[in-house]
Amino acid sequence: MALLEVRNVSKSFGAIHAVNDISWSIEPGEVVGLMGDNGAGKSTLVKLIAGNFPPTDGEVLVDGEVCHFHKPIQARAKGIEVVYQDLALADNLTAAQNVFLGRELNKGFWPFRVLNKQAMIDRSAQLFDELKSETRPRDLVKKMSGGQRQAVAIARTRLSNAKLVLMDEPTAAISVRQVAEVLELIRRLKHQGVAVILISHRMPDVFAVSDRIIVMRRGTKVADKATTSTSPEEITGLITGAIRAA
Fold first, then answer.
1. pLDDT of the chain along its 246 residues, tens only?
2. Domain ABC transporter: where (predicted)?
3. DSSP assignment, residue 86?
């Protein structure tokens, strides 16, 4: 059974058809690259899956169950987490504080409950160790590299035992070394059985870690191919329209 299935999904905003009759699925531990030019409908599709708004038509199924998401907390309850391009991290806080931001652990009893800082530090350290990241719980985020910041954002998804992580341009605007760190983080998620949808314009990164590549153009899916059975040249042609469909 597929972890996530998008079945004949469309989304319109007035007269604008952002996503048109798209169907595809993803299995546990699978990495799918989602590619397309700006305005292709990638972001709208991701927001449908993440619960930002419901589809106009069609269904989203998680573990075979039809889900009606109207807000992200509903998708999160089903194991779907999103790591947005801006990461939504608080620079003035530590790695551990960011991992638990909005999900803080407390100890004691009301009205004498206080933050259990040590428990949050210990759990964050465990998550970073699972991801094989050098990020340290007590380090301030504002002093971290792009790769370490991604590790913090991904560790936050692991806190809720996510089944599916949607990553929006995780390797944009970071150094070559940091790109390698982020790709290794994706491989670690895959190794742990977590499915990943990787939205990216960087062809080498998608080919390095994905099992399949889905290409969207003008709100429509024009290709869904195993990475081993396609090439950067073909994917580029599909994105630009030089190749109609594959």
1. 899 999 999 999 999 999 999 999 999 999 999 999 998 999 999 999 999 999 999 999 999 999 999 999 999 999 999 998 777 899 999 999 999 998 899 988 877 888 899 999 999 999 999 888 889 999 999 999 888 999 999 999 888 889 999 999 988 878 888 899 899 999 999 999 999 999 999 999 999 999 999 999 999 999 999 999 999 999 999 999 999 888
2. 4-243
3. T
Please provide the distance, in angstroms rounded to a whole number, between the alpha carbons at the two ends of the chain.
Answer: 25
Q: Of 213, 171, 166, which is closest to residue 189 (Cα–Cα)?
A: 166
- Which H or E run includes 96? helix 95-99
Burial class (CB in 10 A: 0-12, 13-18, 19+), 102: exposed
- The CATH-assigned architecture of domain 4-90+162-240 is 3-Layer(aba) Sandwich (3.40)
Cβ burial 171-200 (10 Å sphere, 16+ → b, else e):
beebeeebbebbbebbebbbeeebbbbbbb
Q: What does the angle CA 201 – CA 203 – CA 204 come to, to the nearest 5 degrees?
A: 135
| Residue ranges per structural domain of the chain | 4-90+162-240
Q: What are phi and psi of 27, to 5 degrees?
A: -95, 160
